[in-house]
Each structure stands twice: as C-alpha cells, then as structure tokens.
Amino acid sequence: MAEQPEPAAPQQRVVRVPGSRRARLTPVPGTDPDPESGPAAVEKTARTVRGPKGPNDDQLMQDVPPHY
C-alpha cells in the first residue's frame, strides 16, 4: 500500500554566504548561471535602437532632477 516515491531530479539548494545577510541558490542543472554570458550583439542592438529625436530631447538630457 505504501508506494515508494520516485527519485527526484537534482534541484536547487539554498546556500548560506558567510558575512552576507542573503542566501544564494545553486544554479539549476543544465543552465548558465552567469547572466552576462549572453550574446553581446543582441544586448548592444537592444540598447541602441531609438525612435526619432524630439525637439526637447537635448534639454531633457541636460536637466538634473531636484533630488540630486
């Protein structure tokens, strides 16, 4: 009557980091844990695509918010 559970697939574990208030998860098997390892060309084109320049864009870029 008591069924044996199937062996679980490898999962993430919580790892305590000495000197830190936050814990960290181990990477999921089969993934790349480094977020900066993606293709640089995709990131670069995503950041440089902009619409047409408006008449007050230069002024808006020079303005400093009052909380600075």
Can you characterise this structure?
The model has no long low-confidence stretch (mean pLDDT 76). The protein has 2 helices and 2 strands. The protein has 68 residues and is an alpha+beta fold. The longest helix is centred in the middle third of the chain and has 9 residues, at 40-48. It has a two-stranded antiparallel sheet with strand order 1-2. A hairpin with a 6-residue loop joins strand 1 and strand 2 (23-25).
Share of β-strand residues: 5-15%
**Run of helices and strands:** EEHH
Report the count of strand segments: 2
Structural class: alpha+beta
Largest sheet: 2 strands, antiparallel
Q: Give the overall pLDDT as a whole number.
A: 76
Strands of the largest sheet, in order across it? Answer: 1-2
Rg value: 24 Å
> Low-confidence parts, pLDDT < 50 over ≥5 residues?
none
Spatial gap, N to C terminus: 68 Å
What would you call the shape? elongated
> Helicity, in percent?
10-25%
Topology:
Elements: E1 14-16, E2 23-25, H1 40-48, H2 57-62
Antiparallel strand pairs: 1-2
In short:
The chain has 68 residues and is α+β, with helices and mostly antiparallel strands.
